[in-house]
Amino acid sequence: MALLALPHLIPHRLRRNHRRNQCRCCSSSATNEGSTAVVWFKHDLRVDDHPGLLAASKHSAVIPLYVLDRRILSRYTTDTLELAIIALEDLRKTLKKQGSNLMLRYGNAENVIADLVKEVRAHSVFVEEEVEYHLCNVLDGVKKKLEGVYLSGEGKPPRIVFWQTPFYESQSLTDLPQSWEEFKKLKLPISLPVPAARFSSPGSELQWGSLPTLDDLKDYLKESLCEKENNWREMAQASAERVLMERLGNLKESSMEPIVDGSLGKKVDNSAFVTSKRDTVGGGNETVLNALAGYLRCISYESGMLLIRPGASFFKLFGPVLCLGIVSRRSVHYEAIEYEKERNAGFISPFGYSAATVSAATDTVRSMEWYYLLALNRERIDEKRLAIRIWRWKGYLIQYTVVGNEGPAVLLVHGFGAFLEHYRDNVDNIANSKNRVWTITVLGFGKSEKPNIIYTELLWAELLRDFMIEVVGEPAHCVGNSIGGYFVALMAFLWPALVKSVVLVNSAGNVVPGYSLLPISRERRVPFGAQLGARLLLFFLQFNVKKLLKDCYPVNPARADDFLVTEMLRASRDPGVVMVLESIFGFDLSLPLNYLLKGFEEKTLVIQGMKDPISDPQKKVALLKELCPAMVIKQVNAGHCPHDEIPEEVNPIICEWIVKATSDDQEELKASSSQQICHIKEIADKWRKKTTKKMWRRVALLSPMISSSSRSLTLNQAASGLKVGESFATDIIKPEERILPPKEKAPFITFVLGGPGSGKGTQCEKIVETFGLQHLSAGDLLRREIAMHTENGDMILNLIKDGKIVPSEVTVKLIQKELESSDSRKFLIDGFPRTEENRVAFERIIRADPDVVLFFDCPEEEMVKRVLNRNQGRIDDNITTMKKRLKIFNALNRPVIDYYKNKGKLYTINAVGTVDDIFQHVLPIFNSFEQLKESSHVNPQSHLGPSLVENSS
Ligand SMILES: Nc1ncnc2c1ncn2[C@@H]1O[C@H](COP(=O)(O)OP(=O)(O)O)[C@@H](O)[C@H]1O
Ligand SMILES: Nc1ccn([C@H]2C[C@H](O)[C@@H](COP(=O)(O)OP(=O)(O)O)O2)c(=O)n1
Prior knowledge:
Blueprint: E1 32-41, H1 51-56, E2 59-68, H2 70-73, H3 78-97, E3 103-106, H4 109-120, E4 124-128, H5 133-147, E5 159-163, H6 180-185, H7 214-224, H8 227-235, H9 240-247, H10 285-298, H11 312-323, H12 329-343, H13 356-376, E6 389-393, E7 396-403, E8 409-413, H14 427-432, E9 436-441, H15 457-472, E10 476-481, H16 483-494, E11 499-505, H17 530-552, H18 562-572, H19 577-586, H20 593-596, E12 604-609, H21 617-627, E13 632-636, H22 642-645, H23 647-678, H24 680-690, H25 693-708, H26 713-726, E14 748-754, H27 760-771, E15 774-777, H28 778-787, H29 793-801, H30 808-821, E16 826-830, H31 836-846, E17 852-857, H32 860-868, H33 879-902, E18 906-910, H34 915-927, H35 930-933, H36 948-952
Helix pairs in contact: 4-5, 10-12, 11-13, 12-13, 15-16, 17-18, 17-19, 23-26, 24-26, 25-26, 27-34, 28-29, 30-31, 32-33
The protein binds adenosine-5'-diphosphate and deoxycytidine diphosphate (YYY).
Residues 756-757, 760-761, 778-779, 782, 800, 803, 805-806, 811, 831-832, 834, 838, 876, 885 line the site of deoxycytidine diphosphate (YYY).
């Protein structure tokens, strides 16, 4: 590989002057005289083989734009961010050579693009299509926003042109066979790359923006993410292996600093490598194509380690640049084939390529393209009403689904050889019992990507961790069948803050009495003979799938139906499947379930099909009962997959469990909040006695993550107990012993509830005066939208006039904007949440929980009297609207009040009396929070009524 670093060995770029392919969106060769186009670069950071740019070049002027949108960039690892910066720098240079430039702007893509369109009076915006769910949402936002942009003198909004870089020449990419075998039979020709476009820049003076450094970008993202998101991102940076070593005590204290990604920054001079390990290629399009030419020619002559598994090296080297679109997949294919021809006097043998590197490169891009096509076709292939979504993990396409709008989060993880549809009769049912249910097809299975890598149980646990962090966004009840159960148990062991409870459905993994730790080998290699074994196994499985499946469903064999058999067979023929099967020979399930779930026993439900042909269910249940008495065990009359064999029996068990586990959480929280107030010192002492030094440090490290996660109530309790306890435990936890740096505190949030005219605003003014919190009135924010005639202004006006509630998304986004742009860390959010929907939207979008909820309780006649005398010229302060508002308040605000009452956060204040009298009841509540006293503008102690702090001492 070192050859790539030597400039004299870098081969000249292959000539592509005979490229002739036309872009799907630019068949007309006519120039759009006097018109301007914006080309939005996202994952297409190149000029070469860029159909969008080529199509845009028909306009008189083209503005290439890159939007630094946090919704996109926050999903990148530090390495990817750094790669993107290098590529942007190169793209800008290339464009400048053509007399153009790359515009760099910060913000949400829809706003940035709409503003730019207005600024330069652009007629068209060119955007590459995406398959990932969160990116599709961003694209929809851009599309919608542009539909509302009318330039003066133009009769219609700007045109938005979506484009692709099709790998295959086919009339349609959305009507292709779902089976790799069938697809290959079509023998679709592979498209040729298109030549680089020539275009003009607009003459006017434009602000092009400067290129950020990695630190700039990290700070920008850190600022725009809430504390919990930042903490969770940090959790995702240490590998599963490292966390495991730490948990097992195999890691030396001295090497305990956080291992973060971002190993770049060590670009090897004069080479295309961006890592000191020389295992990742980066740079601009030209550099990457040169590196590819070097790879194709040089590496095949080296007996280097990178070719031990043909193809593995290729994705490692080029995967990241392919994901950022620095080169297109079809360019890679083209270069590889040209090289093969060069080696064989223009001849391509029907028996395979003559160089292993050519096979590796072409196999990888064809495989990537196949999973892209499966993702693109996801809606059409949806069998059971499950709306399939796509998530990209480490560059790989993963399929998942989510059902349900309210209630606790639940994650369902399938077993070996299965896929998310294996929960076909569980998802809706569990969601209908007021849960939000996510199902995922993990890497290597179903229609998710099957890259050429070494699969281990730790890799899958890491994937689940990242799914929880990036997609679910809150701790969940995690259900796993077979090996999926083991992955879930491993996740609970490694990152307990992510898991509310564990449900094991005929889980893989042993139960071992008297277990003492075995050393775990760090090096994971594929055992000798695994490849042959995997091929034989694959052959055996394909041949016997129907029978094997029926054996797993002994009570209800009809459930092992054609749908399951067909999809299993389909998946077993996908490219890359042999590598996944190899993992069976390399799994390390040596940590038994009883060890992994030691701290989780009370939060574990075991559903065991007692006719499981794969394990010995009697023995397993007996051992679990003996060794894990706190676990709840349900024995059912089914085989290896009870959730699918007898869903009518298993669904209620899971639903009841979730209700119980959730209410246990709330009980513990309630108990803890009163304990915290009354017995802070005792709690600290208790904790001190109960916990060993090591445990203290581990749990304390997790506490910032735990406490900021809105739904992990029990863990919240532990975390806050610890935070309080830390001050009494300096002998146990010393600052220098921390593994991670201390976190910035989460913002202090107060919700102020009460009917219209109950005096919320009046009391808020006094609270602000005394404690310096920032006041955000939901009503004022909405009225500001009306006054500013924003796009939602008219809609808000009509709803308020009618006494109705504005859609939560709108209100929460306004609050979010204020929270994000504020320097304050203490907020008083007034008139919010008015409904359960408001509350859930806040939790979902802001990902924070209030510290205090004030409720001003006022009789209706008093509220009516006050509102009718308010005299602020408000359109809704009239008796007709007031009656409607009161009706809505009584119907919709009550559940919110009850919710916070149950969580122990509600402070009800009698709102009858003088303003000052009422404030006397408010004071002690805020006085009991140390962080508010710091910024108090007057001496609040002087107002002290009987405060909670006094009570507790
Ligand atoms: N304790 C009180 N007694 C009498 N009038 C009050 C009291 N508190 C507020 N008001 C008056 O009642 C009206 C409604 O109060 P406001 O704070 O705007 O309520 P809300 O927050 O519910 O909209 C205002 O005109 C205010 O001056
Ligand atoms: N969370 C919120 C807050 C207010 N609104 C709308 C509906 C309310 O009647 C109006 C006015 O709210 P505001 O909090 O100013 O009203 P009161 O102070 O309670 O009289 O705004 C909303 O739709 N959602």
